[in-house]
C-alpha cells in the first residue's frame, strides 16, 4: 500500500482502529519520519481522542483511557529502549490484558511479544511516498482492513 503523506497515514490509522481491540499489539516499524506516529494519531482519533496525540518519544508510554477513547490504549515508542529486558520493565504484559498496544519500534520488545502482533513496516522512497507492508497474524486475518 502506498501512503502519499500524513493525511493518507492518518486515514489508514482510522481504518485500522475500526478493527483493533483490547489485547491486540500493533507494531509500527520503519525509519524516523516514515509516518508511524501519523498512523497512531489516526487510530487514536478514530477511537475518540479529541486533539492531536503527542508523540511518546520521551515519555515512552502514553496511556489513553475511557472516556477519552473507547477502550484503553497505550501508545508506546521504544526508540530509546536498547534491550528487550528494558521494555519488560514498562509493564506492557499486564497492560495488554485489557488495552490495545500501539508500539513504535516493536522489534525492541523481542520475538516472544511479536508472534501474534500485527506488524506494519513503513519505508520511504525518494519522492517521499511511504510504502506500507504488513505481516498479518492469524488473529487479524478476518478483520484486517485491506481484505
UniProtKB/TrEMBL annotation:
One Pfam family per UniProt: TsaE
Gene Ontology molecular function: ATP binding; metal ion binding
Keyword ATP-binding annotated: yes
A GO BP annotation: tRNA threonylcarbamoyladenosine modification
GO cellular component, as recorded: cytoplasm
InterPro entries named among the record's database cross-references: P-loop_NTPase (IPR027417), T6A_TsaE (IPR003442)
Segments crossing the lipid bilayer: none
Localization (cell): Cytoplasm
Major location (coarse): cytoplasm
Key words, A-Z: ATP-binding, Cytoplasm, Magnesium, Metal-binding, Nucleotide-binding, tRNA processing
Stated family: Belongs to the TsaE family.
PANTHER family: TRNA THREONYLCARBAMOYLADENOSINE BIOSYNTHESIS PROTEIN TSAE
Name of the featured protein: tRNA threonylcarbamoyladenosine biosynthesis protein TsaE
Species for this entry: Stakelama pacifica
